Description:
The chain has twelve helices and four strands; from the N terminus they run H-H-E-H-H-E-H-H-H-H-E-H-H-H-E-H. It is α+β, with helices and mostly antiparallel strands. It folds into three domains: 2-58 and 286-313, no CATH class; 62-190 and 267-277; 194-262. The chain has a four-stranded antiparallel beta sheet with strand order 2-3-1-4. Helix 10 (188-224) packs antiparallel against helix 11 (238-262). The longest helix has 38 residues, at 2-39. The radius of gyration is 37 Å and the shape is elongated. The relative contact order is 0.14.
Amino acid sequence: MSTHSQDQEIDLGQIGKGISNFFKGVIDSFFKFLFFLKKKLVILITLSVLGIVAAFFLGSKNYTHEVSVIPNFKSNEYLYTKIAQINSKLREKDRAFFSQIGIQHSDRIKKIEIEAYPALFPFVNDKENENNFELIKLMTEEGGMDKIMNDETIGMNYYHHKITITSEGMLSKEAFIAPLLKYLNTSPYFETQQKINLKNVRDKIILNDSLIAQIDKIIGLLSSNSSNATVTISEKNSLPELVQKKDELIYANQIFRIKESNYDKIIKEESSVINIRKFDTLLLNLKVFLPLLLIIGYLIGYALLNAAKRRNNQ
């Protein structure tokens, strides 16, 4: 029994000593590493500077430019086709095409994309396209709401759309955005549609203004209770109906005036934001990644070289 107890005490003592030696070794290694870094500080700083400089020259400077547009006169499909054509010309590097439509520095343009802003409810409630609701109802039964929200055919017919351009380096609006919009707004067919729709909207505004003036006259006659009135209303309830009709005409004219403002272009620009710099995440950023790579490479090389020296000395 006493021998067994002594063996246990020896084992526990050895384990305790081993743990103590392990932590002592870790602490010694840590301080040796710190002294090494201090000794090689100049080299490490030099490698860091070299890495940052290399990253500055090697790193891509990609910028995005976003243009929000409204395709008028059912020109949605036309707009998407034109963007696809421009993208194909970029891949073909057809500088003659871009020069012809007035776009400068086409070699710096990487790609151009278009997508719809997800606005399902305005699409369903569009009074000019009453079949939209039935279409959405049918597609919901077949594939569910997620499918509808991601469906490119449905999205193409939304009201608002975003054109995204990716370029190497910064661009001015005059160099690309302005000639791009000018090109998109050049279409004999849609130019004719623009004139017709503008005339129709202006005619409706004039007609509604005339009806509003007539309603105001009738209301004035009824309110004055003039015995000389040439207009008679059989029912007393007609006055609220006239007021309601006037409100509807005023609201309709407000909508028509917004359309008149938007109809000055086939593809109406809402807003544009240019030169949005895209930054990589910290570890993927070359200004961080390259200095780390050089320092780690140096440390590994130094460790291997020392290991080889020790082996030769043995």
